Amino acid sequence: GENVEQHPSTLSVQEGDSAVIKCTYSDSASNYFPWYKQELGKGPQLIIDIRSNVGEKKDQRIAVTLNKTAKHFSLHITETQPEDSAVYFCAATPLNTGNQFYFGTGTSLTVIP
Amino acid sequence: GAVVSQHPSRVICKSGTSVKIECRSLDFQATTMFWYRQFPKQSLMLMATSNEGSKATYEQGVEKDKFLINHASLTLSTLTVTSAHPEDSSFYICSARDQEGTEKLFFGSGTQLSVL
């Protein structure tokens, strides 16, 4: 089955700096890669996603890049703000199969004011 | 994005009682819903996959008689923790996949279960 690894497990940045979280996957059949943000005591919220036919996607201060050959994808947050502090999870799955989503182990991001 | 409603958000119960958690997809139909358990500062642990109109598929090590899942309609799945014990205390989260639309996965807000 699919194996998703995520690094780093914790990340602290100064407000205004950029944050990068990286994930790797093992199954070449995976073609959909979402990122979720989870605040304390809440369910994960989808913040951005990318499909394998695209190399990069951007939405305001967040962007995701995908390298299919190397089987890794990354989340980039620019101009970080204290409200970006949360746990971020990456995931991978093959679409159109009804398969489960395979999640990384999470990154706890702290933005220091 | 689509909305998944999960209730209750928090429940405290006595050991030996049963607790039911509801998960509803409000603006899309979900033939598949997933139930997760999450321990503090850990990732999401898939418990079972709930398919509308059929029996749930449980992950290895998850007791199906302990965690009863019912997915009676395209918008509602329930998880019942039967004869709860303190070790069942955890954060339970449901999710629903918009399979007929975007195929994206959306999560409920979670249920914090505390068994005394």
Word description of this protein:
The complex is a heterodimer of chains A (113) and B (116). Chain A is an all-beta fold. Chain A is built from no helices and 11 strands. In chain A, the strands form 2 sheets. In chain A, strands 2, 4, 5, 9, 10 and 11 form a 6-stranded mixed sheet that branches. Chain A has a 5-stranded antiparallel sheet with strand order 1-3-8-7-6, with no helix packed on it. In chain A, a hairpin with a 4-residue loop joins strand 7 and strand 8. By secondary structure, chain B is an all-beta fold. In chain B, 0% of the residues lie in helices and 52% in strands. Chain B is built from no helices and 11 strands. In chain B, the strands form 2 sheets. In chain B, strands 2, 4, 5, 6, 9, 10 and 11 form a 7-stranded mixed sheet that branches. Chain B has a 4-stranded antiparallel sheet with strand order 1-3-8-7, with no helix packed on it. In chain B, strand 7 and strand 8 form a beta hairpin. Chains A and B meet through strand 4 and strand 5 of A and strand 9 and strand 10 of B.
SSE layout and pairing:
The complex is a heterodimer of chains A (113) and B (116).
Chain A lengths: L4 E3 L2 E5 L4 E6 L7 E7 L6 E7 L4 E4 L2 E6 L4 E6 L8 E7 L9 E2 L3 E6 L1
Chain B lengths: L3 E4 L2 E4 L5 E7 L6 E7 L6 E7 L5 E2 L8 E7 L2 E6 L8 E8 L7 E3 L3 E5 L1
Parallel strand pairs in B: 2-11
Antiparallel strand pairs in B: 1-3, 3-8, 4-5, 4-9, 5-6, 7-8, 9-10, 9-11
